[in-house]
Amino acid sequence: MANEWRPCPCDIGDRFDYGGRGQEVEVGHIKAYVCKPPASTDKAVIVIHDIFGWQLPNTRYIADMLTANGYIAICPDFFVGQEAWKPSNDWASFDDWLKTREAGKIDKEVDVVLKYLKDQCGAKKIGVIGFCWGGAAVQHLMLKNPHLKTGVSLYGVISRFEDKHSLLHPTFFIFGEKDDIIPLEQVTLLEQKLKQNCKVDYEVKIYPGQTHGFVHRKREDINPQDKPYIEEGRRDMINWLNKYL
């Protein structure tokens, strides 16, 4: 438990000068970033941000990547107007900060987003992906939300839901082999529990040599030896969504 929330490097994704192809909209009581493909589609993906919030360019880059693959993508502000974590913040205050932003308490916001996607965007098949904090939120939703078809949890903090494994929908779990925040023994335990309890399709994949946040890493921080695994992680995410949406 001790090292699961050490200083989190999620903010080193594609933080180049990236403005995004989509637009910011009001969805009920929250704001959201939405990007739609040129051709009409009834498939949508909810993108759940990490601790650095819904405006992080890395996360919008991934949302736009989903749109380039034919999906309506929406990244809502699941902190509901509360400040996202900043790298300059004092990590000693992190636990207190997190208490008001629980990954397992986003159901009201998800319901509002689902209604928007169905009513305003014509979406009928809806999946969800999430990073770190958002990856834990994906696991929460896969355990209880009947309206989502599938989920991809990218380096989701396992211990937030370590006793719950009866997934309702096919779920893909992406982890880095050298993630300081999520030790491999936690990943092994997750696999064992899923094998015992899970009745739907799932996959747990560990990417060699990769650290936390690798799938949405900033271009200039990508080492040549890491690039194939980053591209593989993104491709695997898309392929899983294609399979179940």
TrEMBL record:
Q: Where in the cell is it found?
A: Cytoplasm, Cytosol
Keywords for this entry?
A: Cytoplasm
- Which ranges form a coiled coil? none
Tell me one GO molecular function of this protein. Answer: hydrolase activity
Report the Pfam families cross-referenced here.
DLH
Cytoplasm: present as a keyword of the record?
yes
What Gene3D superfamilies does its record include?
Answer: alpha/beta hydrolase
Against PANTHER family, the record matches this protein to: CARBOXYMETHYLENEBUTENOLIDASE HOMOLOG
The UniProt similarity line reads:
Belongs to the dienelactone hydrolase family.
Protein name, per record: Carboxymethylenebutenolidase homolog
Q: Which organism is it from?
A: Chaetops frenatus
Q: What is the lineage of its organism?
A: Eukaryota, Metazoa, Chordata, Craniata, Vertebrata
Give the gene symbol. Answer: Cmbl_1
